[in-house]
Amino acid sequence: MWVGLSILTALAAASTDAWTKKFFGDGDAVTMAFYPLAYSLPLFALSLPFVPVPSLDAVFWWCFALSIPINCFSFVLYMEAIRLSPLSLTVPFLTLTPAFLVITGYTILGERASPAAVLGIAVIVFGGYLLNAPAARHGLLHPLRAIAMEKGSAMMIGVALIYSFSAVLGKKAILHSSPLFFGMFFFLLQNFFLVGWAWATGAVRRGGLFRPSAVCKGILVGVLYYLHVVLHVWAISMTQAAYMIALKRLSAVFGVLYGGWLFREKHLAWRLTGAAMMVAGAAIIAWAA
Q: What is the distance between the terminal CA atoms of the chain, rounded to a whole angstrom?
């Protein structure tokens, strides 16, 4: 069952990205972040009273407190990445998170990567190369230069790096609470703080939330974001986190397909192949773990 839930999580994540970009991509990153968070906020608030509250210790609270600002910043950066660049050149780079986890684990904890994990990293890097393979006609190294030149791609690599740290904090908080409680409570507060900040500072027009043209679109992306979170915590509670996250990275493939469907993005065959290889690399790392 966790396999199906993980794939649905990937689809919900990719759908949230695609429709948020489609509906609100004309605004800035804060505006893009505002709508899925604002419209999912009531759903998290209504769900939390029905979630059993586990025993919470100091470790949970400090992990939780550190995770909130880190995830608020990374979510806005994520929105900026998909706003600036094609989905097929941004979302696949999230598969770098497990690769960064291998590197940070070695740097911070002295954990040595297995040969299989190193292979997984190599497959991810090669997949990233294939995303820009058409640029190879200008030289073999040009696809790598194209990654640095594409602002959204570079930003998403930064998001993947941030996630490699926040994932550790989130996992520790879940171990000291429960997946469902953490998911509902964390995203309730994350959404509240980010929406409140955007509203209070005037980063988002206060009347925009209830414009008739925005309400239906906001409800759709809000429900998709809520489903993404619920499916994620449900799936991760049923198996090892590494396995679930590896399957969730199929969102990269779904993101490329959405890019071709909604935005008519080019070089779809190369980008689909590259995204699939990057997901395979993430799966190899998960297997090695």
A: 21
Q: Is 211 exposed, middle or buried (0-12, 13-18, 19+ CB in 10 A)?
A: exposed
In this prediction, residue 107 carries a pLDDT of: 67
Mean pLDDT of 40-51: 95
pLDDT tens digits, one per residue of 69-125: 999 999 999 999 999 999 999 999 999 988 887 777 666 556 677 888 889 888 998
CA distance 128 to 137: 16
* Backbone phi, psi, residue 179, to 5°: -60, -45
What is the full DSSP assignment across the chain? -HHHHHHHHHHHHHHHHHHHHHHHTTS-HHHHHHHHHHHHHHHHHHHGGGS------HHHHHHHHHHHHHHHHHHHHHHHHHHHS-GGGTGGGGGHHHHHHHHHHHHHH-PPPPHHHHHHHHHHHHHHHHHTGGGGGG-TTHHHHHHHH-HHHHHHHHHHHHHHHHHHHHHHHHHTS-HHHHHHHHHHHHHHHHHHHHHHTTSS-GGGGG-HHHHHHHHHHHHHHHHHHHHHHHHHTSS-HHHHHHHHTTHHHHHHHHHHHHH--S-HHHHHHHHHHHHHHHHHHHHH-
| Predicted pLDDT at 111 | 65
In this structure, are residues 106 and 113 in contact, taking their beta carbons and an 8 Å threshold? yes
